[in-house]
Each structure stands twice: as C-alpha cells, then as structure tokens.
Amino acid sequence: MRDRMSRRQVLGIGGALGVVALGGLSSAAALSRRPASTGAVLRSAVPLPPAFQVPLPLPPVLSGAEIEIVQREVTAEILPGVPTRLWTYGGTFPGPTIESRRGHAVTVAHRNELPVPTVVHLHGGRTPAESDGYPTDLVLPAGWGHAGHGMHDPRAVTSEVTRSYTFPLDQRATMLWYHDHRMDFTAPAIWRGLAGMHIVRDASEESLELPSGVRELPLMIADRAFAADGSLAYPSIDTTLQMHPGVQEPYIAGVLGDVILVNGAPWPVHEVDGARYRLRILNASNARHYDLEAVLDDGRRLDLVQIGADQGLLRAPVIHRNLPIAPAERYDVILDFGQVPVGSRVRIVNRMGSGRARDVMAFSVVRKAADGSRIPEVLSDDLPVWQQSEALRVRDFSFRAGRMGNGHGWLIGGQPFAPDRTDVTTRLGDVEIWRLVADVHHPVHLHLVGFQVLSRGGRAPLPHDAGLKDTVSLRPGESVEIITRFDGYRGRYLFHCHNAEHEDMGMMANLEIT
C-alpha cells in the first residue's frame, strides 16, 4: 500500500477537500442544505450555443454475436462550428449502441489505437470475471513502453492492442452501458469520450407493446467543459494520462462541466409525434447529479412514468413528477406527448442545476399521430425476491474522505483501493445485506449483481429506488441498506463509488466470489 500512498502525495490536494466537497459550509450546515452535486464546476472558455438548437443525434447501432470496435482519437463537432478532439469507441461519441438478446452471448473485440492503455467494463453486465474489465487488466497500445502504473497486481492479465470481451447476457432485458475502467484514469477517459450504451432485449418485454422503433430513444446525459481552442477541458495533473493520476486541487471532490450534452450534443432538441415515447436515460456524467422534470413552456409538467431501473423492468409503473438520477444510474421512462398541442415544446430540465446546467434538452411536438403503445399495469413477474431472513451476513461500509499518506483521498471502510488486497469474500449463491453510509454524494455501484434497496436512513426506500438496481445514490450524510444474492460467476469483482474522480482517488474495493 505504500507505493499507492506515495503516488497520492503528489496530488497536492491538501486540506481543502471538505471545502470543495461541502461547498465551504460546516459539515452540519452542508448536510442540512443537501448540496446539488458533490464537486466543483469547471467553466468553459469558449462561447456556448443557445439551448434547443442542435438536433438530437442517435448513436449508430451494432448487433450480432461478434462485434469489433476500434478505440481511436477523432476530431468532431460537438459545439456548432468548433472542432473538438475526442477519444472514441468506433469514431463516435457516444460509442455505438450495441443491441443484443437475452441469453445470446456477444463477443466484443476492442482494438486500442489510443495513446494510453484502456480497459472496457460493461456496467450492469452479469459477466465472467475475465471479461468484467478489472482496472489492471489493461489493453496496451502498440509500442507502449511504460512500466505501467499503480500497485503491482500479480493477477492482472494484460493484452497487446486487442482484447475480446465475452458477455453471456444471461440477465433481464435492460439498458447497460460500457465505459473505460482503467485504474486511476477512469474519470478523464470517460470525460474524453469512452462511453456507449448496450441494450439487452427479450421476447417478454417486446410483448408488452411499449413504445418502440423511432419512439424509443436511448439518451446519454453527460456534462463537459471546453477550453478556448475547442478541446475538452479537464483538470488532470498529467494531461497525457500516462503516468500521474489525479486532478488539480479545486476538483478533487468531482468535476462538473457547464455544458449539458445528450448523446454528445449540447442541449439538443428532438421532433416528436403526439404519442408516447420510451426514454432510456443514462447519467454518464463523472460527478453531476440531475433531478429531471418535463415542463411545457406554459409551466405545466408532464408525468414521468418510470417502467424500469438499472437492471430492467419494474413490477409495476411508478409515476414521478421529477426524477433524481446519479452518475451511472439508468431509468426507463415513458413520456406521453399525446395530450400536448402540436407546436408545443417540452423541456427536460434539471432541478438540481443552475444557470446553463438547468436545461438538459427539449422535445418539439410536430404532428398528431396514431399510438398503438400502452403502459401495462403489470410490467414484469421475474424480479427476484430476497427475504431479509435469507441473509447469511450483514456488512457495513462507510464511503468517506480520508487521509492517504500525506494527502487526502476517498476511502471505503477507511482504506484506499489496493488490487492485491481482498476486501470482501463471499460464496456463490449467498444472500447478504449491505449497509452503506456516506459523508457527501456517493453513487455506489456493485459489479456482477443487481440489488434491491431495503431502506434509506432507516425509513422506507424512495419511489425512485424501485426495482432491481446496480447503482444506488447516497446523499450527504445518508445511510442506505441493500440486499442481493451473489450469483452468476466466481472470481474477482469490484464495488466502488461512481463519482469517477472519487473512484480514481481510491474509493474502490475488491469483492471475491468463491
């Protein structure tokens, strides 16, 4: 652990952690005011376009049992008229949306033509350990001459240039996403563009007559900031992302951009029929939380009818007026434009945002249309049911800032991540209850398994906690209790905070399933 700590000492993050994370307030005041997001805003140095002018892009779709994706750098136009260099999957941001069938294995061969090592993780996938994207299982670019980074990991499996990941997809139909998971450098790699969506379908879901085709929209929400030359601004200590991890001191609690992108476009607009639409929403931001609301220009709000969570359909729909979503969470939502007059605009706004970060995107209702879709009263009957009496053990985990060597980091149970240390061991098939407690915002993600939220702060879960999840948002000072069965595969997995800056700075732990 000493090697890891000594590397953290060069971050120069000193004692300002609490000021940034809690907005300069005392701890008690910060917790009572519940800050909108943990982190600091990085301001763009280039003029920003007006909202709701750029059409919503839809990523290209890939399908089949064998898929090839080249990770490469491209120049693209995100802000109108401004060229921006991106790291991409297949030349686009977001990367291609992979479409697959439940129980039909998919092998994705990733070729790394970027200047740094990469790792691919299918977030939410029930995946064997060798394809789960462990942070030290690097895919090295051609000619990579560095000795590597991080602690020595005797179990690491590195690949030269290309690696094939096999995803059995023996899991419920849902929307997953894939992103870079390289140790210490996940946050800047995602920020530069290494993220894409993966939709798993099955016949049961298709029989429900939910909105489909052009009325089903995958929406990846992500905030970014832009430098004066149009490049993506990010406060890395090492801008090459080759050796020295970490961000500059004002941003150690998380990097928040001032431009809201949806599918890689700033504050886009999409023309829709007067009918129901299915929105597959992903928060792919590094640290920004959103509280989404659908509002007409006359101030009326539309219901957000949630039909699914991270790991697939709910048992029954849940109606929201607003829907909070933390980094890495996904929500499957129906928005009904059938009662909206033609010519009207529906804005998706972020109640947690201020200034330009309050707008997300807009829909313009352009025509009346027939609508054969429906929202069934019962959506799914295959959700697992785990009784608390089944739990073989209860574990407690704290997610807090703490000292690492001579600096600060983000810790689980008082310890920073170490690849060569096993933090939790459980047996395949065991049911466990985990109690999680946070100091500031921490979206906690478990690899391999989905879970159900049992309680928040000792009270009942909130309405948006329904269904099977793989990421749960802990608000400042909050405790959450979850239950899961560790099934699927044996091997080494992870659980961690999905504030990507926290993850890179130690807030990750090993989970060994035997």
TrEMBL record:
<dbReference type="Pfam" id="PF07732">
    <property type="entry name" value="Cu-oxidase_3"/>
</dbReference>
<keyword id="KW-0479">Metal-binding</keyword>
<dbReference type="InterPro" id="IPR006311">
    <property type="entry name" value="TAT_signal"/>
</dbReference>
<dbReference type="InterPro" id="IPR045087">
    <property type="entry name" value="Cu-oxidase_fam"/>
</dbReference>
<dbReference type="InterPro" id="IPR011707">
    <property type="entry name" value="Cu-oxidase-like_N"/>
</dbReference>
<dbReference type="InterPro" id="IPR008972">
    <property type="entry name" value="Cupredoxin"/>
</dbReference>
<dbReference type="InterPro" id="IPR011706">
    <property type="entry name" value="Cu-oxidase_C"/>
</dbReference>
<keyword id="KW-0560">Oxidoreductase</keyword>
<feature type="domain" description="Plastocyanin-like">
    <location>
        <begin position="409"/>
        <end position="512"/>
    </location>
</feature>
<dbReference type="Pfam" id="PF07731">
    <property type="entry name" value="Cu-oxidase_2"/>
</dbReference>
<protein>
    <recommendedName>
        <fullName>Multicopper oxidase CueO</fullName>
        <ecNumber>1.16.3.4</ecNumber>
    </recommendedName>
</protein>
<dbReference type="InterPro" id="IPR002355">
    <property type="entry name" value="Cu_oxidase_Cu_BS"/>
</dbReference>
<comment type="subunit">
    <text>Monomer.</text>
</comment>
<feature type="domain" description="Plastocyanin-like">
    <location>
        <begin position="74"/>
        <end position="203"/>
    </location>
</feature>
<comment type="similarity">
    <text>Belongs to the multicopper oxidase family.</text>
</comment>
